[in-house]
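pls design
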């Protein structure tokens, strides 16, 4: 039993019906499909035989069976029709429409799908899937960006009970090896940056002096020789923290900057009499060191290049 697709694919003036794999009929127009797809243009442009053949029709219109389900076809056709483009906000949505766009050679739909999987909501959440799809489509810039984004995540574990990243079946072992090799070289580059003494030697220690609230005598000059308490963090301790963090997962991953900063904060132990302003001031000084460290790691990773064969 079949059902009819919602508007605008239920018009009585349609001249062809596309029937999906889940038996939903889309009443569409040959002219619109021909403009959007050279595949349909060729199909509808073939000369009709003089003698009628056994062709399925409904209401006088030919019925064309397609392999897409109703959801994928609805989204694909909305890109072709003069209506609002569909919302593609998951990698599964993008892939289903992209596969159909490739099948029917619909360039405008293909371009929309590429833009959709590069939006942060998908790109930053599913970089392994984006890498696979971009590599399959031979999109160099998108493939390189996706490979870089995977550094924020651990490589998926090989687990028979867990599904592999979407789209992985599209690429060859050589393409997967290129990603593994790139991640390995980036990890080594990050470790080398951590161990680079020339970067660390600029910082002997991070210090912050007490505020007027904690040491009013010093600022008022009421004592002959007022003493200023100075809080500091020895950079050897900070370096050890950084090395331990990168030893666990030496990649440019999500939350790394915050993780390093928080670890450094925990190492700061000013006297208990210090107020929150003093503690925050020391943390602010630490962030300068943290920014320099993260920039060194970023630059080291940026010098590594994904090896592509297209």
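designed seq:
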């Amino acid at each position: 039993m079949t059902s009819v697709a919602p508007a605008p694919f239920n018009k009585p003036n349609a001249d062809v019906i596309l029937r999906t794999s889940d038996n939903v009929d889309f009443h569409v127009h040959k002219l619109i499909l021909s403009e959007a797809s050279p595949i349909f243009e060729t199909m509808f442009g073939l000369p009709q035989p003089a003698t009628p053949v056994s062709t399925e029709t409904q209401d006088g219109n030919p019925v064309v069976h397609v392999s897409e389900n109703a959801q994928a076809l609805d989204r694909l056709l909305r890109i072709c029709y003069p209506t609002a483009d569909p919302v593609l906000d998951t990698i599964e949505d993008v892939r289903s429409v992209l596969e159909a766009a490739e099948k029917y050679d619909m360039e405008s739909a293909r371009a929309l799908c590429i833009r959709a999987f590069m939006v942060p909501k998908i790109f930053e959440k599913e970089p392994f899937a984006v890498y696979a799809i971009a590599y399959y489509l031979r999109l160099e810039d998108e493939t390189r960006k996706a490979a870089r984004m995977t550094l924020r995540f651990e490589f998926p574990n090989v687990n028979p009970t867990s599904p592999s990243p979407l789209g992985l079946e599209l690429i060859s072992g050589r393409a997967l090896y290129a990603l593994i090799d790139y991640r390995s070289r980036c990890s080594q580059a990050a470790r080398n940056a951590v161990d680079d003494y020339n970067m660390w030697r600029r910082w002997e220690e991070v210090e912050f002096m007490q505020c007027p609230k904690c040491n009013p005598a010093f600022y008022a000059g009421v004592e002959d020789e007022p003493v200023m308490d100075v809080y500091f963090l020895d950079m050897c301790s900070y370096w050890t923290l950084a090395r331990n963090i990168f030893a666990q997962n030496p990649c440019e991953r999500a939350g790394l900057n915050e993780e390093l900063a928080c670890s450094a904060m925990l190492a700061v132990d000013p006297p208990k009499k210090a107020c929150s302003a003093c503690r925050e001031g020391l943390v602010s000084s630490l962030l300068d060191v943290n920014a320099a460290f993260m920039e060194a790691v970023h630059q080291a990773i940026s010098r590594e290049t994904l090896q592509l064969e297209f």
